[in-house]
Structures are given as structure tokens and as C-alpha cells.
Amino acid sequence: MRAPLQIIRKNWYINFKKDESIQMFLISVKADGVGLHLNGADYVYIVAL
Q1: What's the distance, CA 32 to chain centroid?
Q2: Is there a contact between 29 and 48 (Cβ–Cβ < 8 Å)?
Q3: In the chain, where does DSSP find H-type helix?
């Protein structure tokens, strides 16, 4: 059984917050409105292609 996408995203975020060796977290601007927040970021770069 596959984990719901919300749980997967939450685990990615938790790993990003806890593991200081992870310095970059890439997301798509199309992910807007689906529960991704940038409150753990020191810097945010927005690139539209």
C-alpha cells in the first residue's frame, strides 16, 4: 500500500528540517495550494521557466 502524498511530503519536510546536510529543497510553483510552506527556509529563490 502506498503512502498518501501528504505523508510523503511531510516526511520530506521533516528530513529537510532535521538533517543539516540537506541544504536545498526544490519544489514546483505548481505545488502551490497543496500544503507546502516555506517557513523553514532561510532564503527562497523563485524561478519561472
Answers
A1: 11
A2: yes
A3: 5-18
State pTM to two decimals.
Answer: 0.57
CA atoms within 13 A on the CB side of 42: 6
CA atoms within 13 A on the CB side of 25: 23
| CA dihedral sign of residues 3, 12, 31, 49 | negative
Calculate ∠ Cα 49-8-2, nearest 5°: 115
Specify the length of the chain in residues. 49
> pLDDT 10s per residue in the chain (49 long)?
677 877 887 888 888 889 989 888 777 766 655 555 667 777 877 777 6
Distance CA 12, CA 17 (A): 9
